[in-house]
Specification:
279 residues, Diguanylate cyclase (GGDEF) domain-containing protein, alpha/beta, binds ligand C2E, binds calcium ion
Length: 279
């Protein structure tokens, strides 16, 4: 029993220990994932609610693990954030997504905005603005075709710093949107002073639309708030016709969700863009 004890991490049950080993192993593999070209981007269309046209795509990263298959970002992004790897991964994502958008443009396909997620950790990196600038230079993508999605927590928890940083990013010409809007209870005065262009209604409220009541009220308020502040508004996680109709009635600008398309690899987006061009 004594020997057995030695091999155990203090205070851990065997399943917890297994979990920790998996995490450590996964983290060391993640270090090499970029150079081994195991990260891939999927893209999910963003649709203008009135015209039905694809106006943008959101880049969503996946890890094509050699043994475990496709690992979702919810599993490895937190690991990357804990280890600082998020800066390298974030740069890879931004660069790959920007290059992809430029490639579609070079093919003469209809213009779409490329939305890229930024993690809080990237936001704390003093070289963020420089990095975004470099990527735009390197890929030749116009900043008008790039959108950065930040979370509400970045916007509210950090105090004066984000405003200056967001302003610098906006000066590059990129669009800034607040992701998962409504989940972090930011004050109205805070939103008013943030230099952002767009609010993205959190999925939980969009899903709640079908049940009526409070979530409908929240979704409606976010849309009206955006309008009165002169911001555009997009709803994510739209899955049903009922949700879509409600959002249309409330004059939400854009929608994104499984009701239209799931995130998909680049060639499928290219095919969609070709179809739009033919119409
Ligand atoms: P998010 O930015 O809020 O992205 C939306 C998530 O909802 C995506 O999951 C997307 O696939 C999923 N989704 C889209 N439409 C629907 C729908 O109609 N119904 C439902 N149930 N889900 C829908 P995914 O791709 O697993 O990404 C999860 C999260 O991982 C993202 O949430 C984002 O926070 C993070 N993430 C993804 N890619 C990146 C990245 O490149 N960098 C950073 N920092 N985070 C990323
Ligand atoms: Ca997002
Ligand atoms: Ca979200």
């Amino acid at each position: 029993a004594k020997d057995q004890g030695k091999n155990q991490v203090a205070g851990c049950t065997p399943t917890m220990k297994q979990g920790i080993e998996d995490k450590t192993q996964l983290t060391s593999q993640l270090y090499r994932a970029i150079e081994r070209q195991e990260l891939v981007l999927y893209y999910q269309p963003q649709i203008n609610i009135n015209t039905g046209q694809m106006v943008g795509v959101e880049a969503l990263v996946r890890w094509q693990h050699p043994e475990k298959g496709l690992i979702p970002p919810g599993v490895f992004i937190p690991l990357a954030e804990q280890t600082g790897l998020i800066n390298a991964i974030g740069r890879w994502v931004l660069e790959t997504a920007s290059r992809q958008n430029k490639a579609w443009q070079n093919l003469g396909l209809p213009l779409v905005t490329m939305a890229v997620n930024l993690s809080v950790e990237q936001f704390r990196n003093p070289r963020l603005v420089e990095m975004v600038y470099q990527v735009l230079q390197e890929t030749g993508l116009s900043s008008a075709c790039l959108e950065l999605e930040i979370t509400e927590s970045i916007a509210i928890k950090e105090t004066t710093y984000p405003i200056a940083l967001l302003q610098q990013l906006k000066h590059l010409g990129v669009t800034i949107s607040i992701d998962d809007f409504g989940t972090e209870y930011s004050s109205l005065s805070r939103i008013k002073e943030l230099p952002v262009d767009r609010l993205k209604i959190a999925m939980e409220f969009v899903h709640g639309i079908d049940k009526g009541g409070k979530d409908q009220a929240i979704a409606r308020s976010i849309i009206h708030l955006a309008k009165s502040l002169g911001l555009s508004v997009i709803a994510e996680g739209v899955e049903t016709l009922q949700q879509l109709q409600f959002l249309k009635e409330q004059q939400c600008d854009d929608v994104q969700g499984f009701h239209f398309y799931k995130p998909m690899p680049a060639p499928q987006i290219e095919a969609l863009l070709r179809k739009e061009m033919a119409h």
